Amino acid sequence: MDRIDPKPDIVGEVVSGCLMTRARRISRVITSIYDQELRCHGLSASQFSMLIVIAKLGGASRAEIGRANFQDRTTLTRSLAPLLKEGWIEELPTEGGRSRPVVISVAGESLLSEAAPAWREAQRKASRLVGSAGAKAIIDIAENLPREDDPA
After folding, report:
1. What's the rounded Cα separation, in Å, for the pair 25 and 51?
2. Which of 18, 89, 99, 126 has a C-alpha 20 to 30 A away from that of 28?
């Protein structure tokens, strides 16, 4: 009986140059740096990032926030839930059944101000880890990602 090679070609191919596995590894390491620095403010890196997106948009529907943050509806709902519970964001009432805009609350703005030094320290550590060329490459790639509503 022939044995199947335990390391088919795909393993070597992925190990030698898969962008997805490398990007996920980099993401986990960098996210961990931000999580460590922001923890003393009761924030995770993803929560901080979501607060920044909402503050930047200044009042947006859930769909707009999801598009801006490259998140599907289910993931976005899970991401928003703790921010709403903590009172860092709020949904404004509207008339006529339209979507309720999500805005950062006064407590959320205060939290961002308080957490800014921790974010800056995480930014320094992450930048040191990837180097200036790596940091520039990450920013450039992120800025040039196609949006859901952009033509392909």
Report:
1. 24
2. 89
Determine the 3-state secondary structure of 72 from DSSP: coil
Q: What is the dihedral of CA 125, 110, 45, 61, to 10 degrees?
A: -140
The domain that holds 124 is classified in CATH as: 1.10.10.10
Give CA 150 to chain center in angstroms.
20
Number of domains in the chain: 1
Tens-level pLDDT at each residue, the chain (152 residues): 666 665 668 888 888 899 999 999 999 999 999 999 999 999 999 999 999 999 999 989 999 999 999 999 999 999 999 999 999 999 998 877 677 899 999 999 999 999 999 999 999 999 999 999 999 999 999 999 887 655 44
The Cα–Cα gap between 151 and 23 comes to: 24
Distance from C-alpha of 93 to C-alpha of 110, rounded to nearest angstrom: 22
**Which is it for the CA torsion 73, 39, 119, 101, positive or negative?**
positive
Q: Which two tokens stand for residue 148?
A: 């859901």
d(CA 7, CA 98): 54
Residue 122 lies in a domain: yes
Q: Is residue 99 part of a domain?
A: yes
Question: Residue 18: how many CB atoms within 10 A of its CB?
Answer: 12
